[in-house]
């Protein structure tokens, strides 16, 4: 497939991307927080490969993994402003920017991961995508990030009382700080890259994440109790700057979207395998895992978090109800 860039495309991206003179190729840069071999890293590399292939070499994407281009909140700003074109972002730190996207950060809103995907692939996902696009981030496809659970170095967590007084690292989002506060803990918002040292030196007592991130970061070495609260099921996006995307011709848009969808299919497949292998690895290293027999007290404690969100965003009540009503 051989295209030439159309005028709209060139006009729109001149301000935000480097155009390679004669060849008229667009050189994009992409951000990812994860290490080599992580499902998202492999899938983003695949996206870059497919993008080049499907656009006949007209769009080239250079991926920067491991958060080398900055923290996630900074990278989200960069993509919104067009300093970077592409990012694989967790919707958690996007929530404070796009209220629609923040709905996924309400604790226990999704029953499980398949429920999350049913919502994302329907009207709810369209509403979230629209809200994000208006803030500069078009989600091209959704990645799986499983469920997040609490971990710490001292004890198994079985009830909210076990979180009381505990200093828990959260991602930058007031909903998460509210969530920890409602459980009686002290929230500590902090960049992903700082969590290992903070756990090790006692700056925080615990944190929360999915199996693959708990394992790949080495957090399991310094916080050996993993309690299956599964309080958050947050999707991730393969996101592009809105102006860059809108400036593409229809053919180019289709090629970019197709590459993203194929990348997401690969990510979801790799994710399932990695969740299992990460769990095996940390348990073999001595991590104590516990199921939480009754999650109701955790869920009930979240009522003020929902109330706060709905008070701030009364127009998003239908979205919350739509998700809750989705089978
Ligand atoms: C991971 C997620 C990252 C980042 C990280 C965190 O699960 O994939 O994008 O959000 O959690 O806790 O900061």
From TrEMBL:
One of its GO terms (molecular function) is carbohydrate binding. Residues 1-25 form the signal peptide. Keywords: Periplasm, Signal. InterPro entries: DctP_fam, TRAP_DctP, TRAP_DctP_sf. It is found in: Periplasm. PANTHER family: DICARBOXYLATE-BINDING PERIPLASMIC PROTEIN, PTHR33376. This is TRAP transporter substrate-binding protein.
């Amino acid at each position: 497939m051989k295209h030439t860039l159309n005028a709209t495309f060139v006009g729109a991206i001149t301000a935000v991307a480097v155009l390679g003179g004669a060849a008229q190729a667009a050189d994009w840069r992409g951000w990812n927080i994860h290490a080599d071999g992580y499902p998202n890293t492999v899938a983003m590399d695949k996206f870059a490969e497919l993008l080049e292939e499907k656009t006949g070499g007209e769009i080239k994407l250079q991926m920067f993994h491991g958060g080398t281009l900055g923290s996630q909140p900074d990278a989200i700003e960069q993509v919104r402003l067009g300093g970077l074109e592409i990012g694989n972002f967790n919707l958690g730190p996007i929530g404070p920017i796009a209220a629609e996207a923040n709905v996924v950060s309400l604790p226990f809103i999704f029953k499980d991961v398949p429920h999350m995907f049913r919502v994302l692939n329907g009207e709810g996902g369209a509403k979230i995508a629209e809200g994000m696009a208006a803030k500069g981030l078009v989600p091209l496809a959704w990645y799986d990030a499983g469920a997040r659970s609490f971990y710490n170095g001292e004890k198994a967590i079985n009830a909210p009382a076990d979180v009381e007084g505990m200093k828990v690292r959260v991602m930058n989002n007031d909903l998460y700080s509210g969530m920890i506060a409602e459980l009686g803990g002290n929230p500590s918002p902090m960049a992903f890259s700082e969590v290992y040292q903070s756990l090790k030196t006692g700056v925080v007592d615990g944190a929360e994440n999915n199996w693959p991130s708990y394992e790949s970061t080495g957090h399991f070495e310094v916080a050996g109790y993993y309690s299956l609260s599964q309080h958050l099921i947050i999707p991730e996006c393969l996101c592009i700057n809105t102006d860059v995307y809108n400036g593409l011709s229809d053919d180019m848009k289709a090629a970019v979207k197709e590459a993203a969808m194929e990348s997401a299919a690969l990510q979801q497949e790799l994710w399932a395998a990695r969740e299992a292998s990460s769990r095996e690895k940390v348990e073999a290293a001595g991590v104590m895992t516990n199921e939480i027999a009754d999650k109701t007290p955790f869920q009930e404690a979240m009522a003020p978090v929902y109330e706060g969100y709905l008070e701030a965003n009364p127009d998003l009540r239908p979205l919350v109800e739509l998700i809750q009503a989705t089978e």
